[in-house]
Amino acid sequence: MNNMSISLSYTYKGVCIYAEYNRGCISTTTYDLIHIGRSLATKLNVTLSVIIIGSNINKTITQDYINIGVDNLYICDNTLLYEFQDNIYSDILLRMIQIICPEILIFSATSRSIPLASIIAAKLYTGMTSNCISLDIDIKTRNLQQFTEDMKTILTPYHRPQIVTLRAKIFNKIRVKCKANRIGKIVKLPIDVNNNIFNKIKAINFTKYKVDNIFKDLSTAEVIVSVGRGVRTYKIFQLIKEFVMIINGKLGASKGIVDLGWVPYSCQIGETGISVNPRLYIACGISGHKQHTIGINSSSTIVAINIDPNCYMMQIANFALQGDLGEIITEFIKQLKKHN
Amino acid sequence: MNKIVICIKHIHNIGINYFDLYALEEGVQLKEQNQDNSKVIVFTMGPRGSESTLRTAISKGADEAYLLTDDKFFKGSDTIATSYILATAIKLLVGQYKIIICGKKTYDSGTEQVGPAIATMLNIPHVSYVREIKSINQRRLTVERVVDDGYETIRSSLPVLLTVTNGVHKPRIASIKSKLLARKANIKIFNAYDLDINTSKIGLYGSPTQVVSLYTKKKKLKKKFSGSARYIVSSFIKQFNNSI
Predict the structure, then answer these.
(1) C-alpha–C-alpha distance, residues A49 and A98, integer Å
(2) In chain A, at which residue ranges do the beta strands (DSSP E only) sit?
(3) Which CATH architecture has domain B3-206?
(4) Which of B79, B123, B147, B149 to mutate to test the interface with A (most CBs of A within 10 A)?
(5) Which residues in chain A (98-137) have CB-CB distances under 8 A to chain B?
């Protein structure tokens, strides 16, 4: 059985990326995926393909992707596909994969793409690793080394394609080399409108999060920006809120800020509030009294921004940024916006 | 009779997986809302010790419990293989069902794959990350789900598979009486042979993915940045992105 799978694996060639497209918008994580996919494809000396499924797919995007290193684009564009619906998209995606036969298939680890990737893995009965934080290739065996957040290295040795979903970088700032008017192939595929899945399932409404959602569900959040007395003015507080929105985080606070009424009590972190365990905790103008730091002990990475280099928070931080809070936040917004 | 199937996972030293409690509660609520003798059936695949988790489920309102356990063939199954075992068992042991509910992810590995994979193997639609069942009748249901950037309302035909997040119904606390009854309840146990399953697709050797090693995290970093705001931010982002 395994021997047969090995010989089968040679018919699968190339790296393929699924670019999430929903309600006329491409996911911002796609550039990240293309960057990583390009380097894997170059190491393996194979082509890089990108699949886009949706409605009214923007033409400038497709040339952009080719310019930054995509060789083949497979597009399925139909007004019936305006809303992302994994049960419907999976049939189209499966057909494309059967045409492309990639050895590696990469999705971004989002709430839309993970279930879609799972359907494909189940239909093809192949390996899939969720929420990878990085990838590498073993040139000899052509196996993809999949590194997960819980510190495992996972391989899919005898099955192809090797499917992964990849976590987005929090500070999305990769610069991709761009070559104007690079040549690439664009393949357009029709859909089967008679497919009865269209009658089975349908998205009927969508409500986008409002700003206030940055105050919700802190206890399970992955990225938390927290403000303390060092914020000084309401204007800087507003800038921090904008920064939180850009990096898709949640906003917490020390007791002083909650007492001012700028942040609801449910977001107070520390002894008299809640404990949090995010992947990344950014403390803005928090000196780090014990009553506060007791609530952040299990955060994996702590970043502190403070004018005082000797305060306790700056001592325990993995990254200590010393300077004026307002200026540093303004600079963050400027640099991160430039990229997106 | 309407059958409501719940798939749960036993986590070593913890018991029932957190999100699976919400899946179970949602299923028991559905049974209680409809007065038409619905039945809640729970499944778990795991070692013999998972039996205690099935008894927890019975004490919280489940009617029937199935334990899929096989030290020789099931052990070491990855998520796709686990989904295959569960889907095979549901097909064989339940037959017709109205709805299948799973937790959105597990706390130990958290792959979020099992729900959609089971639905695919059973050839039914699925909706992930559901927080509320808005309405349900004999033919279809409407649910609200949570996605990265908002809430989405989805209408689906039945049967359907849902994966649920910690939603509107809080899991109940079992009474002493129901706990005692659950101790005596009959747990049905099945192995690979009973299910007539293709063993080359499951277990440590049949699973598509293999865990080859555990790597240790790099030593905790301590880095300090000062200077102009522009320099601080750009050098921080560069070093932060390289640190993981």
Answers:
(1) 13
(2) 15-19, 21-22, 25-26, 48-54, 72-77, 104-108, 128-138, 143-148, 152-155, 162-166, 185-188, 201-208, 223-227, 250-253, 280-284, 301-306, 319-322
(3) 3-Layer(aba) Sandwich (3.40)
(4) B149
(5) 110-112, 114-115, 117-119, 121-123, 125-131, 133-134
Beta bridge partners of B44: B67
Is residue A290 within 8 A of residue A235, CB to CB? The reply is no
CB A76 within 8 A of CB A91: no
- Reported as a single tens digit per residue, the pLDDT across B187-196 is 999 999 999 9
Provide the shortest C-alpha distance from residue A207 to chain B (in Å).
Answer: 5
Give strand pairing partners of A280. A223, A301
Q: What is the Rg, in whole angstroms, of the alpha carbon atoms belonging to chain B?
A: 21
Give ipTM to 2 decimals.
Answer: 0.91
User: How far is residue A187's CA from residue A102's CA, in Å, rounded to a whole number?
Assistant: 15
From the CA atom positions of chain A, what is the Rg in Å?
A: 23
User: What pLDDT does A3 receive?
Assistant: 43
Whole-angstrom Cα distance, residue A62 to residue A50?
Answer: 9
Say if pTM beats, i.e. exceeds, 0.90: no
Integer CA distances (angstroms), B101 to A258, B84, B104, in order = 39, 16, 9
Do A112 and B147 count as a contact with CB atoms less than 8 A apart?
Answer: yes
